[in-house]
Amino acid sequence: MKKILMMLLITISIFLFTGCTDLDLDTDEGEKFSYEVTKSYKADYDIGYYIEGVVTNNKDKDYSYVQIEFICYDKKGNNLGTAMDNTNNLLAKQTWKFKAMGLFTDVKDVDHCDYHEITGW
């Protein structure tokens, strides 16, 4: 019992002394973010691959940083890399028009890109 109390005390002390007071402990139901892809395409001269759309902040909370990621594949299912975009200061209930970009060795080989995740803090 003493060990458990000591561990709890140490953990609380670390949070207090390091300033970790803005923990994202969303306990209400629902997703923080939702997204819609409106268009995806290869850039001229096969320079990059783009995915455009809109991310919505579904919470009554401001986020100082938000990032969306997609994993892109060729026809054989090989992972070619990641297309991503990010923004600062996505305010409560606000939308953001994103343009995720992937720079791959062989852009012409991109068959499709799957949504991976949206992160924010």
Domains (count)? 1
The fraction of residues in strands falls at over 45%
Instruction: Provide the residue-averaged pLDDT.
Output: 84
CATH topology assignment: Immunoglobulin-like
Largest sheet: 3 strands, antiparallel
What shape does the CA trace take? elongated
What topology, given as strand order, has the largest sheet?
Answer: 1-2-5
**Text of the CATH class:** Mainly Beta
- Indicate the radius of gyration in whole angstroms: 20 Å
Q: Which architecture does the CATH hierarchy give at level 2?
A: Sandwich
Number of alpha- plus pi-helical segments? 1
Amino- and carboxy-terminal Cα gap: 35 Å
Helix and strand composition category: mainly beta
Q: What's the β-strand tally?
A: 6
Q: Helix and strand succession?
A: HEEEEEE
The percentage helix is: 10-25%
- Low-confidence segments: 4-9, 11-27
Structure description:
The chain has one helix at 2-18; strands spanning 33-42, 49-57, 63-73, 79-90, 95-102, 112-120. It has 121 residues and is mainly β. The chain has one domain (31-120): Immunoglobulin-like (Sandwich). The radius of gyration is 20 Å and the shape is elongated.
